[in-house]
Amino acid sequence: MSFYVSTVAVEAVVDPRASYSTVSQSLVSRLDPEFYGLCFTAPLTVSLNSYAFTVPTTFIITDSVVTGNKVLVGQDFLGACQRAGFQLPELGITNIPVSDQRPLVNEGDTSTATSSALESSVQSMQVATSSSLSLARQSDADKPPSSSAEKPVTHINDTTPSSHAQIPALPAEHANCSSAGRPVTDTHSDTLPPIPRTSNSNGVLRDVLLGSSIKGVRCSVFTDDIPALHRCAANHGVDTRSLTSAYQCTLALIFHIMTGRCFHSSLPACRNIAKDLLSAQVLSKQAFELVCSANSKLLKLDRLRLVACAVGIDTKSKSRRDIIGALLTPC
């Protein structure tokens, strides 16, 4: 049995317990994918004695070789084999336990390809997949009853590990953001009106902060879909390799956007967000206005707390009104 990524023969190991397929960093230069950040999509082929089977597979890049091999083949590839009726009796795999899956699609300025991502976490993976984006929920008078229309594409757990009570350690760029994250423009306590959607950049910025898509440059920063966050980070030029959870990745992305750093980047998502804007300060101001003027249906309290945490504001025991007031306070 042989494995090929694109047309390159690779040393691979099959692990039915692994949620995702991974590839070692040392192999990426040989594969030379058209686009990659923390992950990329390429055809993965398994070749047996008399036949072969190819599946477009999204590989997560790891810094170390997986169990002495260059590629680890996970449930995403094996699940595609199973759904196509293609069995792997040589490995004793005829009934692969595949979890609920959803497609991974790169859109916009990146190459388009489809594969699957599984939600279960696997300790043997080099990429953490176990953390939820949810913060410990606190009662709030402004929070309305939930409805099906409010649910994001990926569901956030109702309970959160106690380790999420405080912000996990982030790289220095994100850890020391107590004041850099706030806009430097004059603000007042009145409710800010919503930003008109006449500008393409405004529409993309609104979808990133208030939407629920997990695709392309409009991917929501609040999803708990790990591969989607990896693609989102790559599209923004935010290196999340050192971060170990969706929660931390989201904080890093929020900080990047709220501080107007998209204005100085030429990467796909940043280019779409900063289009037609005059400065990083204008971008930052629009981001804060969007967040602070959004009602609780568009931006739930736990997500508002994430925004505040990302820019260094203490949200403990604070209501929605208090958090918005703190976000609107000039530095």
Record the SSE blueprint:
Layout: E1 2-5, E2 8-10, E3 12-14, E4 21-24, H1 25-31, E5 39-47, E6 52-62, E7 71-73, H2 75-83, E8 101-105, E9 114-118, H3 172-175, H4 200-210, H5 226-236, H6 246-258, H7 268-274, H8 280-293, H9 301-310, H10 320-328
Parallel strand pairs: 3-7, 4-6
Antiparallel strand pairs: 1-2, 1-5, 4-7, 5-6, 8-9
Could you describe the 3D structure shown?
It is a single chain. The chain has 331 residues and is of the alpha+beta class. It folds into two domains: 2-118, Cathepsin D, subunit A, domain 1, CATH 2.40.70; 148-328, no CATH class. The protein is built from ten helices and nine strands. A hairpin with an 8-residue loop joins strand 8 and strand 9. The protein is elongated. The model is unreliable at 96-199 (pLDDT under 50). Residues 118-137, 156-165 have a biased composition (Polar residues). Residues 100-199 are annotated as: Disordered.
